[in-house]
Structures are given as structure tokens and as C-alpha cells.
Amino acid sequence: MTVIPTDQWLLNGYEQPLTLCEKLKSHFGGAASEEIYEYLTWHGMYRKPSTNIKKAINKWQKHNIWKLVQTEATKLQKLWNGPDIPIFIFPSEMSNPKIMRDQNGKSGLAFKDKLFLFLSDQNSDNEIRALLVHEYNHVCRLAKNGKQEENYVLLDSIILEGLAENAVRELVGEEYLAKWTSYYTEGQLNQMWKKIIYPNRNIPKSHPKHQEFLYGFRLLPKMLGYCVGYYLVKNYLEEHERTSSDLFPLDSATIANVK
Question: What Pfam family is a match for this entry (predicted)?
Fold first, then answer.
């Protein structure tokens, strides 16, 4: 895998993120830079250039974050026999209190053919490893499961997230799990699964309700789908004494024990 040297892109033009996104057009089928930027910022990339952005870039260069990610990505690709994809590192929206509070300023975005890491200047090496593990796990699931992402339903999405965070637990450690993994008790998660997610498990990804159940928008429990997905995958792994990568080819219904 190749970690793209976005440090040079950023140092030469972090003040003009649309210009940066011009460099990404070939990876998005020629989409307009404005469309790319809007999509990336919705998932955590920085919106407003600031002196904090430049400080973060300089800090990452001194610490050689790009080399760290390259080393870890190469290990993961070998461990999971995963796809060879480009990885892009950009600053996160560090002025967003929700991202800073809930995710310590980090976020990510995975496609079947590329991966983005959005980082803050606060992230430790292991936090970066955890984010990479989570996002590259998505890439491998998409590659090895066989189901096209455009055909995903809610059950597929929650299992995708559950697999990725269980991989973090296995490879980086429980202390680096996302905060949402501890929001609810097993009893609460069992009830959420039976009463909320299960009846709606076949909502297609294209439907607005899909995101509501996945993230727990409106009056739903916060991060509902993510939390239930983690719970279901963890149960399957413990019952069958498997690792998360063993589950890449399995269909979501099997993992969730849906008859």
C-alpha cells in the first residue's frame, strides 16, 4: 500500500483545500473538487484553514506520521491479505467540539479502493493505529465479502462497523476502542437489537432512515447501529472462537444469527 505524501500538498496549500481536492479527482472518477471537499468534510476533514492546521502538519512531519502509517498499513495488508490501496492523511476539523470530545479529533473514511485518515494534533501513535485498523478493516470487508456496497442494508452496515471496532480491540487493545463501545450495557444492547435494529434491519443504505438508525439520530439512542453491531460481532467471535478477519467473507445474517 502507498501512503500518499500529503504533507507536501498541505504545506504548499493547506489554505486552499479545494485546490488540494483537485489532486484527488482521479480517485473519485473525475468528480468536481467542490463535491469531493464537501464529502470529505462531512466525514471529518478540516473546513477552515487556520494556524492550528499548520502547527499540526509540522508536528506530524517531525514525528513522521506518514512513515508510521505506511509501516502499520503494510503489516495490516500482509496480516489480512488485503487490497493494495492509496492512503491519504489530512487534518481533521479541530474546531469541531463534537469531533474533539467524542473522537479526540480523529475520523476516517474508507472506500473499496482508497482510505482517508483525518487527524488532530492530539492523537497518539496508538490512536492513529486504531483508526487505521478500523478503516482498513472496512476496505477488506468490502473486498472479501462480495456484496456491493450500494446494495447494503442496515444489517450490513452495523456488522461492517462491528467488525472494524472488534479488530481494534484485538490488535491495538481495549483502551483504544471508540468511546461508543461503552455507552450501553449488554442488556440494553440486546433490547436495542431486538426492538429497534432487527425490525429495521433491511432498510437500504439509500434510504434516509438508514443513517438515523446507524448513528442514532433524532430520539434514537446515540450511535445505535455502531453499538449494536459491535455487540453482535463480539458475541459471534466469542461463541465461535474466531478473529474478526475470519469473518470477512461471512454474510451479515450469519454473524448476527438471523434465521
Answer: DUF2268
